[in-house]
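Troubleshooting: if your tokenizer reports a length mismatch, compare your output against this known-good record of 272 residues.
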Amino acid sequence: MTESKSIKKGLLALPNDDKRKIIFVATVLCLVCSVLVSTSAILLRPLQESNAQMASMSEILKVGGLQLPDKKDVERYFSQHVTTKIVDLDSGEYREEFNVDTFDERKAARDQGTSIALQTTQDIARIKRRVNYARIYLIPDQQGNIEKIILPIHGYGLWSTIYGFLALHADGKTIAGLTFYEQAETAGLGAEVINPKWLAQFIGKQTVDEQGIPKIRIVKGSVNPDYAEAKYLVDGISGASLTSNGVTNLMQFWLGELGFGPYLANLRERGR
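Known-good structure output:
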């Protein structure tokens, strides 16, 4: 210990432009800064997770057409107006053994025990792995019947994975709202996926045909309203064809057999 202190004193006694002293001081500063950053990250993590949860709730309320309350009331308002369920994507049935508040789809997607690897031909959304179970959000009407279904969706655009929520009416195929809350596409081009005016075009569009096959699609240019399949089509984003294609693919994936297709088919069958 005495020898170590002597070395430190000797280094500090060196001239300021001595390389040994410069390296020593820089190393100490790096260690101190790394400790401070690590400590801050640990201390702030609960707050960050809480803020992320509040932001997610706000997006779900917004896409579901519910009035956003004050920030301090979001959690209470959400619990009063939204029911969270976990769905087995293969069977389309609800699973009750999971805690809806702590279930983490992104973590589950990285776990081979709670996800499946997708073959290239299956992975049109370019997500590589698909979770076996996923949360959905139900908004009931005053009689307690399902009024809207909100599905978490994600897939790759041009530069990034795009995350969002798709709201459907009780028929399980008519779009009630769409929002994307996380993306890193090109500003002014692909990033227009978060433009409310563009997203508003999806409202009222049909997502699947009578056989339940996903048909919703973003076209290049504008939709011809006289076209027989115009009810499935949305105007493209100028200069962002690849991002538009990514949004088409991610929506079709999550509405299909490997996504929420089985659940929505069950829902439509029960409604008949």
